[in-house]
Each structure stands twice: as structure tokens, then as C-alpha cells.
Fold each of these.
Amino acid sequence: MLEHGGRLRQAALDYGIELSQWLDLSTGLAPWPFAIPEIPVSAWARLPEVNDGLELAACEYYGAHQVLPVPGSQAAIQALPRLRRTGKVGVLSPCYAEHAEGWRRAGHRVREIGESEVDFYLDGLDVLVVVNPNNPTGRLLPPERLLEWHARLVQRGGWLLVDEAFMDNTPGLSLAGFTDRAGLIVLRSFGKFFGLAGVRLGFVLAERKLLQLLAEQIGPWAVSGPTRQLGQACLLDRDAHARQIRRSEAASERLARLLERFGQPPTGGCALFQWRVTDQAQRLHDFMARRGILLRLFPATSSLRFGLPLDEADWLRLEQAFTDYLKEPPCPR
């Protein structure tokens, strides 16, 4: 299995620091979880049913024609490659590594390409995968460009798969409203914006026929009754949505300013994280980890992703760690 952020227990073992003493900035999740609604006993006692209002709430929230709830968008990332004959798949990289891995495991020929290479390769691809906004770079492509790519792909029966896990802060740039079109698939993650990754909930937005095929792959009762209740309540809480957007954007801007102040200007980012490419990425990651601050290290690109601190105590702790970092002599090259 690939490594991901949030492996806090392993970090506690590696660095000999108690679990409760860590500041985890490795995951790119909103640090303010939505309130957990009261879950009726029936949600625990009965098998989940699909006519409880979750799909309607998700369609309203995302502006989609139809959706399929899944146990985290990761489930769809692994299942979708099984719905096509093996072919040529382009993955706009660097991005969330599970996309390329999922298509490779299903036997497809995968080429990881840069943004400037898409037009060159597109007419030879069966599927193009784009993470938008991208993780970890934060790159955000306009809908018009993505729809142009989709139009070229669908002429040959191809797919455009867009992972919008970090799109909640910029809903006007989502392709959700176009997902009744053949060959256009959008993934949405619930856990990141709502700060509730542990409930394992995501949504696939696509034409009805494809969603039916995907539902057969994933199987019945994939999303638990309590998760369906919780998801519906959060998706309908418009006041909380607006509050989450405001505070995450403010925190992301504050984080960017903090990094700049300590000589680490972000290379990219979005409302839930900042990203920094530096030849000192490994050193900075280890320095912070020795002080109980966990960042997400990407060795292949020598980069780090910084999640959002929760409160003033966390901000002060991060600032003090950077102050100490500047005092430590740099490693010899």
C-alpha cells in the first residue's frame, strides 16, 4: 500500500513522542470537524437504505444531477478502472498517487504527464485523470479547459475523471453540474472540508448508467446507516458551510504568510493546505517531527505539505518551531 498523511501512530513510535503530544499538519483536512448530529438507534440496528435523503442532499450541495455515495472516494478510485477494458490512461502529475496506482493495478497502461503535455497526448488516451484543485500542488484548472479535454475524449468513447476532493471552497469552479454528460466523472470527498475523514464517505458524480455499473462493483450497503445520517445533516447545514469556507481561507492565507516570514514561501496551495518545494524538505520534516509536529513529506519532489493549525496554541507552536529551525545550522551539501 502507498503511504499517506495522517500516520500519526507510526510517527509517535518513530520519534518516541506520545500520541497526544503531536500537532498533525500532515493530512490536508479542515481542523474544525462539523458537529455530529444525534444518530437514531434505527440507523445502527437496520441495514442502510438509499431513499433516506442522503442522495438528494448531496445533489443539492454539489449541484449534480445524480450521485452515488461510496465509502470514501478512495473506493471509487480503486473500482472505476475495472469498468473499462485495459487501455491508455493519462494522469496529470504530480497528484494523489492512488490514481495512477489504481489504473496500473487494473492492467491499464499509465502515463503520468504534465499540464503542458496534455494536448500532445490527449488524442491517444482512453482516460485522462485530473485532480482539481490538485493535491499537493494546489493547481486549479478552469472548467472551460477541462470541458474542452472532455469533448475530445468523449468523441472516442473516452473518460475525463476529475477528482474534486478539495473543491468545496470554490464550488463555482466545479464540473458537478456537467456530470450528466457521458464520459465525465467527478469524485467528491466528504471528509476533508467537513473535517470528518473517519466517517469514510465520498460521492461519485456521473451519468446514471455509469453509476449503476459502479454500484454493482462496490456492492450493497457500502455506506453505513450512521454515516448516511451524519452526511445528510452536514450537507444540509448551509450556515456551517459558509463558516467553514471563511475560516479555512483565512487560515490558509495566514499559513502562507507565516511560511513566507520564515523564508519558506509556498510553491502552491489551496484553502486547506500550503505546499513548499525545497531541497531541505527532508531536513525540515525531521526537524519538525522531533518537536512533535507532523508534516507531509513527498520525497520524489522534495516537497512538503502543511495543513492548517486548529487554534492559537497550534499557531504559536508552529511559529516557535520555525524560529528554532532558523537557529539550527544547515546541513552540509
Note: The radius of gyration is 20 Å.
Amino acid sequence: MGIGCGVGATWLIYNYNSYRLNDGFTVCIIKNVTGIPCPSCGSTRAVEALFHGNLIESILWNPFGLLLTSFLVILPVWILIDLIKKRDSLYTFYSLVESYLRQKKYTIPLISLVVANWIWNIYKGL
């Protein structure tokens, strides 16, 4: 998770001033292969819009950007605290969340939200 957060933060810093530009370039493999945006397309622009203080623009790019921003802010701090205190609270929390997500009453609504977001991305023409 730490490596993923580091790579994500590096990508955001690299593209910090270009989030409004839409030059057709994408790192999304699904969109490059199929021409159809994936459910997470626009997340980078959503995070960058949020960092620029544009909450509504961020949500319009991709609501998953809010979740991604939360991960990018909270996870590195949580990992660092676990390393300093020699604990595994993040792993314990992850295991708990995973056990909930294995239950249909949680999985089906979450899959429905992902599909709805995917339809939204296709409709927007990301």
C-alpha cells in the first residue's frame, strides 16, 4: 500500500498543473485498448481538482477521486504510525473490511455503485 501511495502521489505531483488539459493522453489500459473509459477514469483529474479546491469539479470528474484522496492522505500516515509503534492495525482493519466485503449485502451495493460510476464515465465521454 505504501508503494502504491508513493507512486500515486508522484504521479499527482508530476501532473499537478495539467489537470484541466485534455490532450487525449491516458494511462488507462482499458481505455487505450477498448476506447471505453473504465470506472476509475478521471480519478487523477478528480484528485487534482480537489487539491486545487474545486470540490464540485472533482465530483464531476469522478466521485472515486474523493475516496482516492482519502487513501492518499490517510494511508501513508497510518503506515508510518504502524511502523513506529510496531503494530499491524492497518492490516487488521483491512482484514475486517475484507470480511465485510465478502458478504452479499455489502458487495452488491458496492458493485452497483461501481457500475453506475462506469455508466457515468461513458456518458460523460471520458
Note: The two ends are 27 Å apart (CA to CA).
